[in-house]
Amino acid sequence: MKEGGKVSTKTRVADVMTKTVVTVAPDARLDEAARLLRVHHISGVPVVDPPHHAIGMLSEHDIVRKLHRATGVASARGLLDLLLGSAPARGQNILEVSRRQLRNTRVDDAMTSPVVTVDRDAPLEEAARRMRVHSVKRLPVVDEHDTLVGIVSRADIVQAVSGATRRRRGALQPAPRARAGNASGPFEDA
To answer: Counting Cβ atoms within 10 Å, is residue 3 exposed (0-12), middle (13-18) or buried (19+)?
Structure first.
């Protein structure tokens, strides 16, 4: 992969991508998706349709932004702003409103779409360029049929470029348990 201290121009996305990907369905509730993020120690998941085509991305930021809109807090700078902000209406607790919003909102109402993807055979530099141009931290990786086959993050690219090794967590670990009927290969759907 490395030639003379640099990532080879022959390095492809498939060489560094995470193959075990946690995904979520568009009709899942935000509270289910938030639990997936927490359990797997990840900050975003591809949203996939039944044949596993990536149709969106859902990140922690997307969830917080949706909660900010529901509660009337002015900006989505972070979870503390949400929790410490003023109540959305007299007599309503912001935490209760947020929990209700998580239970009653579908993933497709909060996800970022259309999703930016990268082909598994693309050069690693192409993935880095797309991340920079679209200001995203991760890209779903697709095959020639636009089927999700992995995910590549900024950390994966940095690791490939630096040659460093790190203990990989989150989406890189197989799901601890798949719900009956929902697992499809290395994926776990909500």
So the answer is: exposed
Residues listed for the chain: 190
Tell me, yes or no, if the pTM score tops 0.85: no
The token duo for 86 is 């003023």
Beta-bridge partners for 148? 142
Q: For strand 148-153 and strand 138-142, is the pairing parallel, antiparallel, or unpaired? A: antiparallel
SS3 119: strand
Q: pLDDT category, 170, cuts 50, 70, 90?
A: very low
Express each pLDDT in 82-98 by its tens digit. 555 554 555 567 778 78
Q: Which residues contact 84 (CB under 8 A, 6 or more apart)?
A: none
Q: Please, are residues 190 and 24 in contact by the beta-carbon 8 Å criterion?
A: yes
Report CA-CA distances (Å) from 121 to 10, 118, 139.
10, 8, 14
Cα torsion 108, 113, 114, 117 to 10°: value is -100
Tokens of 156: 């994966």
Which domains are seen in the chain, by residue range?
Answer: 2-172 (3.10.580.10)
Inform me whether the pLDDT recorded for 142 exceeds 80: yes
